[in-house]
Write a structure and sequence with these properties.
By secondary structure, the chain is mainly α. It has a single domain (8-200, 217-269), classed as Ferritin (Up-down Bundle), CATH 1.20.1260.10. Helix content is 63%, strand content 2%. The protein is built from twelve helices and two strands; from the N terminus they run αααααααααββααα. The chain has helices spanning 8-16, 29-54, 63-88, 94-102, 119-138, 146-174, 178-196, 209-213, 221-238, 264-274, 278-291, 293-300; strands at residues 249-251, 256-258. Strands 1-2 form a two-stranded antiparallel ribbon. Helix 2 (29-54) packs antiparallel against helix 3 and helix 5 (119-138) runs parallel beside helix 7. The longest helix has 29 residues, at 146-174. It is globular, with a radius of gyration of 21 Å. One of its GO terms (molecular function) is phenylacetyl-CoA 1,2-epoxidase activity. Pfam families: PaaA_PaaC. Residues 282-294 have a biased composition (Basic and acidic residues). Residues 271-310 are annotated as: Disordered.
Length: 310
């Protein structure tokens, strides 16, 4: 960053001109807090999202599926670890973030507060939620914070493989027995409301003004949701699946999708840890932290002094 950037006005001008901010650069405290909040939410969502599919590794129907879902879970945890490293350069330690997550003080996407009930859930999650993630992440490829900007292409590239993996699961099930097709429909019916509010509530421009000005947000929530609906509603319908929203339709006059407005207050409560599987998932996280504490302590302990044999 240019050495003379020391005021918020100069900082914004630098960003708007295409400048990239590094961890060691001067930045307004509000910008630093916003970057930490944004990346922490992303990291925790990657991490907690892996829990939805982790238990299906042993229950996958074939060895090939087991290998594929194991690789996906590893990818998601890897994304979280990369993002936690980015946070550490901003003064937010990984240990602190994970403590807050286990205690229920940290936030992650409301989508990941729900339980999985069938193998079809793994297909819906990988295909549709990862597709929604890519839409959000691609909007940030030109974000102003350099370390985040550099890790996003790798995350998007791997998420694209997850989408193919999930779509292939759903296609295989839809070409199978009536029971398998019904399993897909049941899973879609349960997951459609969380998918609809995946990108968050519509926000007025003034609420996102600072994030847009700082290039920490690339697009409005509703724009991303409209893109998701435009791509995936026709594909789901072409498969013969029914979307569980009687109001869902494309309005040719406004060129926008109409849908049943979610109860955004309920969504906020879910995101605060009051979802159907929130506490169960956090308990899994707490138990894992406790059972594996010895590993972290061993790695952090000082090496034993060398013993001279002379």
């Amino acid at each position: 960053m240019e050495a003379n950037v020391r005021t918020e006005e100069e900082f914004v001008a630098y960003i708007q001109a295409g400048g990239v901010v590094e961890a060691s650069d001067w930045m307004p405290e509000a910008y630093r807090r916003a970057v930490i909040r944004f990346i922490e939410m992303h990291a925790n969502s990657e991490y907690m999202g892996a829990l939805l599919e982790r238990d299906w590794i042993a229950r996958a129907p074939t060895l090939e599926r087991r290998i594929a879902i194991t690789a996906k879970v590893q990818d998601e945890v890897g994304h979280a670890q990369h993002l936690y490293c980015v946070l550490e350069d901003l003064g937010r330690s990984r240990a602190e973030v994970l403590r807050d997550l286990s205690a229920g003080r940290a936030r992650y996407n409301s989508f990941f507060h729900y339980p999985t009930r069938s193998w079809a859930d793994c297909g819906i999650i990988a295909w549709l939620s990862d597709a929604a993630s890519i839409i959000a992440q691609k909007a940030l490829l030109k974000t102003s914070y350099g370390p985040y900007r550099r890790i996003l292409p790798k995350i998007c590239w791997e998420e694209a493989f997850h989408v193919v993996h999930g779509r292939e699961i759903i296609l295989t099930l839809m070409e199978g027995t009536q029971q398998q097709r019904e399993m897909v429909q049941e899973a879609l019916t349960r997951w459609w409301p969380p998918l609809l509010y995946f990108h968050g509530p519509p926000t007025p421009p003034e609420k996102d003004a600072d994030l847009m000005r700082w290039k920490l947000k690339g697009r409005a929530n509703e724009e991303m949701r409209q893109e998701f609906l435009g791509i995936y509603v026709p594909r789901l319908q072409k498969m013969g699946l029914t979307l569980p929203d009687p109001q869902l339709r494309f309005d040719t006059e406004t060129q926008r999708w109409k849908y049943t407005e979610p109860d955004w207050e309920w969504v906020r409560q879910v995101g605060r840890g009051h979802g159907p599987a929130s506490q169960e998932q956090l308990e899994t996280r707490r138990r894992a932290m406790e059972e594996n504490r010895w590993v972290a302590e061993t790695l952090q302990s000082p090496p034993e002094p060398e013993v001279s044999l002379s």
